[in-house]
Amino acid sequence: MSSKRIILANPRGFCAGVDRAIAIVDKALDKYGAPIYVRHEVVHNKYVVDGLKDRGAIFIEDIEEVPENSILIYSAHGVPLSVRLQATAKNLQMIFDATCPLVNKVHVELKTLHKQGYAIVMIGHKNHPEVEGTMGQVDGNIYLIETESDIASLPLRRDIEKIAVVTQTTLSVDETKSIIDQLQATFCNLRLPKNEDICYATQNRQDAVKKMATVCDLLIVIGSKNSSNSNRLKELAENLGIRSYLIDFAHEIDEKWLKGANTVGVSAGASAPEVLVEGVIAKLKTYDFN
Asked: I need a surface site. Which of 39, 129, 172, 173 has the fewest CB within 10 A?
């Protein structure tokens, strides 16, 4: 009997927000038929997106690409207010909002803070659609930072009275802690994010990888290259000294990766379905992993 083992991360794969967004597109296709237009990829996963394309979903970036009297869906990442206004001004049959409820909650709080006169610092990845959607909820007085080193260049007085910080939801508590600590040291009046704004789906998946890293020789993360949370799982394992590979499909596994490995960990980003996990397990079993 082979001593080579597969260890599955728990939790892994779909989070509630992703599940909801995919269901909205599926139900719209069932009820109204193709085509259904979706502003940006509804979730960042090639398998999911390709499957919805096959059913008649058309993914667009510019609202001008949506014909009049069509049905439009906003992706789980959320959209800037400018996109909502542009869509509302068109003669569309219907608009569905698949924005993750947690992202939407951050949008509501950010707009409240803006009305109260707060300068807002957002921790997130430049050009990520969630960040663009969140920052696009207000007109000015919001600043994006990605690392601690960005703090020094913020054009804000150190004694500013009203300053708040929000974060991209696909970042974990661990990822943002040092940046928030440095913000607190720089701005004494900093208002912190509410605990309930933290995406525990992201944190919990990272915690599972931390546990696996103590017993695995390498980690395979199932997720697409444009998936923020999937990339973070891979980077986390590497930072813990574990070889890690990010793949979309089982056929991408290179037998060379497995040479000398006795224990392989398998995780999946929050937008990767379990069927892909099952495919990876089946592939690993062909190399005598159990």
From this structure: 173
